[in-house]
Every structure is written in C-alpha cells, then in structure tokens.
Amino acid sequence: MTFYKFQGTGNDFILIDNRLQLIDKNNTKRIESLCDRRFGIGGDGLILLEDSDVADFKMVYYNSDGNESTMCGNGGRCIVAFAKFLGIIKNETEFIAVDGPHKAKIENGIVHLQMQDVHDVQSYDNHLFLDTGSPHHVEMMTNVGEVDVKSTGAKIRYAKPYEEEGTNVNFVEQLCENRFAVRTYERGVEDETLSCGTGVTAVALAMHHLGKTKVTDVDLKTQGGQLRVTFNKTNHGYTNIWLVGPAELVFKGEIEW
Ligand SMILES: N[C@@H](CCC[C@H](N)C(=O)O)C(=O)O
C-alpha cells in the first residue's frame, strides 16, 4: 500500500488514499506504530482520504496515539494538497471532516482552509478556552521561548476541568499588534508539536476576544513556520474563519498494512 508523508509548518502526517476502503480503521496499534518516529514512518498523525457522497472527499484523522480525534487544521490543509496531488480536485474544493464541511482553496502553493464558526469563547482569570474543531486552552506569557511545553502542557491537559477527555494547550506571546508567537502541547500526541492549525486559530480568536488585537487578520509564528488566520466578528461570535499556510509533500513509500 502506498503512503504519502506531508507537512504543514512542521506538523507532519502520513496520508493514505483509502477510497477503496482497504484500511482496517480499528487497528489503533498499527496506526500508532506507523506514526512512531523510531520504529515507523513517523508523524504527528495519520489521515485517510475517503469518498464522500456530498463533497469532493472525506477526511478521517487519527492522532499519533492511534486514536481517531477531532478536527486537525494543519492536517486539513495537507489533505487538500494531497487531493490536488491525486487529481481529485483542482484549486478549490469542499470536503467533509469530523466537524462538518470545509471549503478550501490553493493559491500559489498556499492552502486556505475555512474553519467552522466559533460562537463561544470562555474567558477565565489567566486563560481562555474555545473549540475551533478541537478543544483549546490558551494562556498568555511574556517569554514563550522559555516554557517547558511538554511538562506544563501535560499538567494542564490532565487536570480539572479537562481530565480524561483532555484539551490541547497553547502558550502565547504577543510580538506586536497583529502578530503572536505560539507553542502548542497536543492532546493525542502528548507532546509539543511544531505547529497546530486549530491551535493558532484558537489563539487568533482568543487574542481578538481579549482585546489584545483589533485586527481580523492575524499572523502566528509557530516553531515550524508562519500561519495566518483571518475572520469576521459578528454579534454571534466569529465567522468566515480562514487558516492560511503552506502544505507540502515530503516523500512517499510502500507499507504492508
Ligand atoms: N494538529 C492539529 C490538531 C489535531 C487534533 C488534536 N491533537 C486533538 O486531538 O485535539 C491541528 O493542526 O489542528
């Protein structure tokens, strides 16, 4: 079976064309072993591209622990690049993911992915919580380069109120009016990843909600590169949210499933 390795700002994924339904989707151990960086191909997750009756294709996302999870923004951008590579789409598409339909377009190699509207941004004393397709805890700090993301993120992810279901955890530093540095601990990877698409989307909206920025076109600096999030603010929350950035094929190979 042919697999493809893609990366979007260093968030890396194994992609497989599963339109013939050849994959045993309950084989959690196999997915985990393929994502292992020493004994497998290596990746923050594995994504299946499947047929859909209502859209160009369907995205099925697994974290590197082998479990199917909620929406992956960088994975969403990578599967759009993969669908173009396979000749399923040209430069515009609509596909189905676990959180519903997503529009996307590719312009000069950059993938623009529309995210679901966000109506609820919860603000607490020293953090915010919102769901951008996946759950995100957002915490501001003055020197994000120095935080131990793995241990601090894990403490927050397993503590109340998140506990078993967990959350992704984002640490944010404001660099200027429209630019923020973000480091993310990802649930299901249980470590820092170089970038998280739903995470930077959550950060952009949270910073606007807090009044840290007034712009609706925000630059996000991740460990793996630059992303951009644009949106509209309405009386009902945030709409027309787009996650924008690169997504590239790294290599392909053959595996026994
Ligand atoms: N890397 C992702 C987020 C993937 C899902 C997350 N790990 C979870 O289980 O909540 C992104 O780019 O959004």
From TrEMBL:
One of its GO terms (cellular component) is cytosol. InterPro entries: DAP_epimerase_AS, DAP_epimerase_DapF. The record marks 136, 186 as: Could be important to modulate the pK values of the two catalytic cysteine residues. The active site is at 72 (proton donor), 72, 196 (proton acceptor). PROSITE patterns: DAP_EPIMERASE. Keywords: Amino-acid biosynthesis, Cytoplasm, Isomerase, Lysine biosynthesis. Substrate binds at residues 11, 63, 73-74, 168, 186-187, 197-198. It comes from the Bacteria. The keyword Amino-acid biosynthesis applies. Its EC number is 5.1.1.7. One of its GO terms (molecular function) is diaminopimelate epimerase activity. It catalyses: (2S,6S)-2,6-diaminopimelate = meso-2,6-diaminopimelate. Pathway: Amino-acid biosynthesis; L-lysine biosynthesis via DAP pathway; DL-2,6-diaminopimelate from LL-2,6-diaminopimelate: step 1/1. One of its GO terms (biological process) is lysine biosynthetic process via diaminopimelate. It is found in: Cytoplasm. Homodimer. Belongs to the diaminopimelate epimerase family. Catalyzes the stereoinversion of LL-2,6-diaminopimelate (L,L-DAP) to meso-diaminopimelate (meso-DAP), a precursor of L-lysine and an essential component of the bacterial peptidoglycan. This is Diaminopimelate epimerase. It comes from Winogradskyella epiphytica. The lineage of its organism: Bacteria, Pseudomonadati, Bacteroidota, Flavobacteriia, Flavobacteriales.
